[in-house]
Design a protein that fits this description.
Length: about 325
């Protein structure tokens, strides 16, 4: 089968297309014939010290496709089922998927839409619902809102009945997101938005803040929080991994600061998130309340071009790699 591999060495990233055998399916796993996969910046980013150099590994962290084989201990899925989820090697014609991290694809979705969901909406569920406890009528601030996670937070936040403020350095991106329900867009790449957020929210501030940008806006995100605000850090687009914390503000405002990453979580821990997402978020896709935002689609052979497009920061939403055309 065709399979893309990624290597990080000497601060550089390279891709290699290989012709390999389909991966073996473990007892708790699914072997999936991949229809589509999508790009995630966290897997591909280089230079922030979060990815170690070493041997090449299969590339692609999420995919959607048809179950070809189910492991001996798998009871939730069977061959022929349409699934989406986290993978180790989604940019390939076949991929392994742990059954506890797989989700059924709602009938209303095509393969491209399904591939755009698993990771960004699992992270958004973790930030907004599981830890953020976002409620209808509350205010949500998302920095770098045009990213895959940012758009997912906008869509999930609106589905939950929240009012959403987003930052971006592009007026065109903010205009497009207003069409998707963004209540207020702040045109900025600087740490200068806290006062505006307070003004827009009638002096309250953001009940939940999602920081996709990184350390350069960390302190400003804290200042934008409402009393008892919940502040999630998930991204580092600025490559800045340090920031100062105003302890007096943390104390006086009773803030909750937390980070979101799947890298060091166990399969069992991730399975809890997937179960919650299946229960609380998938119905929004099934009834059409949320439709995944897809910016561009590339064929499997053009993965390097897809990555280059991602790194141009031109997209709004998800970039898809189509592995196999067709609905079956």
């Amino acid at each position: 089968m065709k399979s893309w591999w990624i290597r990080i060495e000497d601060g550089r990233r390279s891709f290699e297309m290989r012709d390999t055998a389909a991966p073996a399916c473990g007892e708790d796993e699914l072997l999936v014939r991949v229809k589509a996969a999508s790009l995630n910046r966290g897997e591909l980013i280089v230079g922030a010290g979060l990815h170690k150099a070493g041997a090449a590994r299969p590339a692609g962290a999420e995919a959607a496709g048809v179950v070809e084989q189910a492991g001996a201990r798998v009871t939730r899925f069977k061959p022929g089922d349409r699934v989406m989820g986290r993978t180790a090697g989604g940019f390939a014609e076949h991929a392994r998927m742990h059954a506890d991290e797989a989700m059924p694809v709602p009938a209303a979705l095509d393969w491209r839409q399904a591939a755009a969901i698993p990771l960004v909406f699992a992270v958004s569920y973790d930030m907004l619902i599981a830890q953020g406890r976002l409620q209808a009528g509350q205010w949500l601030l998302v920095t770098g809102i045009s990213s895959g996670v940012g758009v997912a937070c906008l869509q999930l936040g609106k589905a939950l009945g929240a009012r959403v403020v987003g930052t971006s350095g592009s007026k065109a991106k903010l205009d497009r997101l207003r069409e998707m329900g963004l209540d207020a867009g702040l045109l900025t790449r600087e740490a200068d938005f806290a006062a505006r957020v307070k003004e827009i929210s009638g002096g309250r501030g953001a009940d939940v803040v999602v920081n996709n940008v990184g350390g350069t806006v960390f302190a400003e995100c804290m200042r934008a929080c409402a009393f008892e605000g919940r502040f999630a850090t998930v991204g580092y687009l600025d490559r800045t991994l340090t920031a100062q914390i105003d302890i007096a503000l943390l104390h006086e405002q009773r803030l909750v600061l937390f980070g979101v990453s799947n890298k060091l979580r166990t399969t069992q821990q991730r399975a809890v998130t997937i179960a919650g997402m299946t229960r609380d978020v998938l119905p929004f896709f099934a009834n059409g309340r949320i439709q995944p935002c897809i910016d561009r689609v590339f064929p499997l052979d053009d993965l390097p071009q897809a990555v280059a497009y991602m790194e141009s920061d031109a997209q709004v939403g998800k970039i898809i790699v189509e592995v196999e055309r067709g609905e079956s």
